[in-house]
Amino acid sequence: MSKMILKETSTIYKGHSKLELAQMLQQYDDGQEVLLSREVLKARDSVVVLLYRQDTKQLVFTSQWRAPIVFCGDQRPVIEACAGNIDQEDFDSHPQDVLAAANIAVIREVQEETGWHIAKLDYLYALYSCPGISTEKLYYYIACVDKRIQQGGGLRSEGEDIFVLEMSLSEAIEKVKNEEIIDLKTVALIQYLQIHKAVYLE
């Protein structure tokens, strides 16, 4: 199999995320070498969690505007599982433990966005969101929530205006089929819950 080697990088843009230009050397099995230029979005790692209520068997989602979707001309807020970045402060207690930092981040994001308290948190796996363009690794969770402890709605200082909504698993599956839920990470979690329904909702 061929091999790819990172030769050098330069920053094209620095904002909420960084856009880097990476010079890559592609080495083929037959000895040929090709120098490639690739834009890489250097994004912080993030968490995503599908919330469910054991008392009502309802799933808890967020709905908010997403700039790239509006940019594409799709004028509707996006229904999502609760998600957010792992901040540097999340590493304060566990400097070398990414999963521990992710666990802290997911609790914070759930409270900020939905106002719900997590009673039981299950870590599933960590996956690269879009390995063709971004460095972001996304840590996936399912969590049972038991009570509202604050208002939620996100942080206006971060440009958030989040609406919280609830629906059954069957309603969520139908919304995926009808392309009303269009967020890939959310679809992945809905399908996971569909497979493991007996563990969480029965």
Describe this structure in words.
The chain is about 25% helix and about 40% strand. With about 200 residues, the protein is of the alpha+beta class. The strands form two sheets. Strands 4, 5, 6, 7, 8, 9 and 10 form a seven-stranded mixed beta sheet that branches. The protein has a three-stranded antiparallel beta sheet with strand order 1-2-3, with no helix packed on it. A hairpin with a 5-residue loop joins strand 4 and strand 5 (about 60-65).
Observed structural traits:
202 residues, alpha+beta, three-stranded antiparallel beta sheet
Q: What's the structural blueprint in terms of helices and strands?
A:
Elements: E1 3-14, E2 18-27, E3 33-42, E4 46-53, E5 59-64, H1 67-71, E6 78-80, E7 82-85, H2 98-114, E8 116-128, E9 137-148, E10 163-167, H3 169-177, H4 184-195, H5 197-200
Terminal Cα separation, in Å?
Answer: 46 Å
3D shape? globular
Share in β-strands: 35-45%
Largest sheet: 7 strands, mixed
Radius of gyration: 19 Å
The oligomeric state of the chains shown is single chain
Helical coverage, percent range: 10-25%
Quote the average pLDDT. Answer: 94
Task: Give the H and E element order.
Answer: EEEEEHEEHEEEHHH
The tally of beta strands, per DSSP, is 10
| Count of helix runs | 5
Please identify the structural class as seen in this structure.
Answer: alpha+beta
Low-confidence stretches: none
Overview in brief:
This protein has 202 residues and is of the alpha+beta class.
